[in-house]
Amino acid sequence: MTTPSLKISFRGTEFTLTVLAVLAFVVLALTTHGSVLHGDTLTAIFQFLAVPMVIGLAQMAVLGVGQMNLSVGVVTGFCAMVTAWLMVDVGLPAWLALLAGLATGAAIGLVNGLIVVLTRINGFIVTLATMTIIDGLRYGVHGTATYQGYSPGLVRLGQGSVLGVPTVFLFAVLVAIAVAVFFRHVTVGRQLLASGGNPLAARLSGVSNDRSLVLAHLLSGLLAGVAGVIVVALSGSVNATIGDDLLLPSFAAPIIGGVALAGGVISVVGTCLAALIVRLVDVAQAQYSINPDWVDLIVGAVVLGAVLITQLRGRAAT
């Protein structure tokens, strides 16, 4: 099923990102007189890396079939609100509310995929519409209320650590491993990449491109739901603004990490490393009191540069 164009990762890109992450961390440590090496700071860095990692993987799933999901941020926020609402107002136990949050994300992703397949409208437009609808639901149904005081045990777990490593970060790493195994070793995952790399060849090989599209959007929605439940466990309070600032990071991580916009090529490791680099940029903003608008400008410029470099590589290869 695989062809030379259906690589799982750009090893050169991953190595480069590893070097950049190490250098960025060393520079931060030196210029802040070691403050980023303090236990509390390191914990905060990796705690708040979990959501960008999973959000990047959610966007990566649809990029693998050459589509985009503009709704990942608001879906994350909506799933977080549904989970918290079920615990606070409905009184469901935490484990059942978390499952409902995951199911909500998967259901939204499934609807996105089915609309794309049935209408033949590009996922960019479909998810733009669903993003607007879900955004309206967040504020229209729940208003600006904040849900808090839910499951102290869940919050302790979300803010806890194992051997000094935050539990939410360890959970995000396990999610990344599961996603990597899915695309590398599971048949439908490999077929998804085949559909993204060369839809005609995939169809001639007996692969359903429609099924791949639906599956990619479903997986993206599920991962957004995972990010939502991480937010619930980590923050201890949830309101309608959750997810509003996640759209740019969702694209930044996979694109910088070496994922092909045209589909067929993904990089789980590259996506996670790029999410770490973006997180270090946020840390630098806080440490140096940089205007947040400049941070967005820098991240946006890096994403644009990564896209241009990918385009130039593609032209050089042809």
Please give a structural write-up.
With 318 residues, the chain is mostly helical. It has a single domain (48-312), classed as ABC transporter involved in vitamin B12 uptake, BtuC (Orthogonal Bundle), CATH 1.10.3470. Helix content is 75%, strand content 3%. The protein contains 14 helices and 4 strands. It has helices at 11-31, 39-47, 50-63, 72-90, 94-119, 123-142, 152-159, 167-185, 187-197, 199-204, 209-235, 247-256, 268-288, 292-317; strands at 147-148, 161-162, 165-166, 237-238. The strands form 2 sheets. The chain has a two-stranded antiparallel ribbon. A hairpin with a 2-residue loop joins strand 2 (161-162) and strand 3. Helix 3 (50-63) runs parallel beside helix 8 (167-185), helix 5 runs antiparallel to helix 6 and helix 12 (247-256) packs across helix 13.
Concise structural overview:
It is a multi-pass membrane protein. With 318 residues, this protein is mainly alpha-helical.
What are its keywords?
single chain, 318 residues, mainly alpha
Main β-sheet description:
2 strands, antiparallel
**Could you give the count of β-strands?**
4
* CATH architecture verdict: Orthogonal Bundle
Structural class: mainly alpha
- Average pLDDT metric: 89
Helix proportion range: over 70%
Shape: globular
Strand content is under 5%
Low-pLDDT stretches are 1-10
How many separate structural domains?
Answer: 1
Radius of gyration: 19 Å
Q: Helix and strand string, N-terminal first?
A: HHHHHHEHEEHHHHEHHH
Please report the number of helical segments.
14
CATH third-tier fold name: ABC transporter involved in vitamin B12 uptake, BtuC
Spatial strand arrangement across the major sheet:
1-4
**Name of the level-1 CATH class:** Mainly Alpha
